[in-house]
C-alpha cells in the first residue's frame, strides 16, 4: 500500500497542503510557540501556518518540558519574555500568580520575546501547571478582542481566539501596528475555507 505524499514544508498531506496561505512577515517581537503534542498533527490547527509565516519564529513540542530545555528557550537572550495568557483564568488552582507586567517594555518591541501556548484551554492550563518556569513569566492578556473567525473548531466563548488570531492580535498590540498582520489574518480566512471544504465542516 502506497503512503500518502506529505508536503515537506507544512507537514500535511499534499492534498491538504496549506502552503498557499503562508504570508511572509518579519515581526519585531520574537515569537515562540510551545505546542501541546496532541496539536501537532491536528488538521484544523493554526500554529503551523503561524510559524511558517513569521520569520525567525520557533516551535517546540511537549506538554512538560525538561527544566533546562525550557530555560534555554525562554531565556536564550536578554530580551524581556512575556507569556500570552490571561492574568487569571478558571482552573488555575495550584498555579503561581504571575509577576506584574511592566508596560515600559512596550517602548522596545525588538527587545521582547512572546511565548504562546498552542492547545485547547484545558491543554494550555495543564502546560502552565506542569511547567513552573512559565508561571514565573509576566503575562500579556488580551482584552476586548473581536469575535474569532475560527469557525472550524469549537470555542466556549466568541472571544476565545485561535493560536494564530491571538498571536496576531498580541503582536499588533506590542508593535503598535494594526495593519502589519492583516494579510496573515486574511490568509487565515482562506485556510478556514479550505478546511471546511476538505472536511465538510459547515460554515
Would you mind describing this structure in some detail?
The protein has 203 residues and is of the alpha/beta class. 30% of the residues lie in helices and 12% in strands. The protein contains six helices and five strands. The protein has helices spanning 47-53, 67-74, 121-130, 132-135, 163-175, 182-199, and strands at 30-35, 58-61, 80-84, 112-118, 139-140. The radius of gyration is 17 Å and the shape is globular.
Strand composition percent: 5-15%
Order of helices and strands: EHEHEEHHEHH
Shape descriptor: globular
How far is the N terminus from the C terminus?
A: 35 Å
Tell me, rounded to a whole number, the average pLDDT: 87
Which fold does the CATH topology refer to? Alpha/beta knot
Please count the beta strands (DSSP E, at least 2 residues each).
Answer: 5
CATH architect. name? 3-Layer(aba) Sandwich
State Rg. Answer: 17 Å
Counted up, domains total: 1
Strand order of the largest sheet: 2-1-4-3-5
CATH class, named Alpha Beta
Number of helices: 6
Specify the structural class: alpha/beta
* Main sheet: strands, sense, barrel: 5 strands, parallel
Stretches where pLDDT is under 50 for at least 5 consecutive residues are none
Residues in helices, as a percent range? 25-40%
Amino acid at each position: 500500500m502506497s503512503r500518502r505524499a506529505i508536503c515537506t514544508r507544512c507537514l500535511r498531506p499534499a492534498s491538504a497542503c496549506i502552503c498557499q496561505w503562508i504570508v511572509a512577515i518579519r515581526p519585531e517581537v520574537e515569537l515562540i510557540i510551545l505546542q501541546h503534542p496532541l496539536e501537532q498533527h491536528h488538521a484544523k490547527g493554526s500554529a503551523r501556518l503561524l510559524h511558517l509565516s513569521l520569520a525567525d519564529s520557533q516551535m517546540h513540542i511537549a506538554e512538560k518540558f525538561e527544566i533546562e530545555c525550557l530555560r534555554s528557550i525562554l531565556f536564550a537572550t536578554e530580551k524581556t519574555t512575556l507569556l500570552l495568557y490571561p492574568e487569571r483564568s478558571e482552573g488555575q488552582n495550584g498555579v503561581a500568580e504571575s509577576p506584574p507586567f511592566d508596560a515600559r517594555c512596550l517602548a522596545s518591541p525588538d527587545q521582547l520575546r512572546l511565548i504562546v501556548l498552542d492547545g485547547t484551554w484545558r491543554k494550555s492550563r495543564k502546560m502552565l501547571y506542569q511547567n513552573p518556569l512559565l508561571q514565573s513569566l509576566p503575562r500579556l492578556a488580551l482584552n476586548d478582542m473581536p469575535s474569532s473567525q475560527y469557525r472550524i473548531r469549537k470555542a466556549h466563548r466568541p472571544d476565545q481566539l485561535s493560536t494564530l488570531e491571538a498571536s496576531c492580535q498580541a503582536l499588533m498590540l506590542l508593535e503598535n501596528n494594526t495593519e502589519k498582520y492583516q494579510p496573515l489574518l486574511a490568509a487565515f480566512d482562506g485556510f478556514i475555507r479550505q478546511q471546511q471544504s476538505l472536511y465538510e465542516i459547515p460554515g
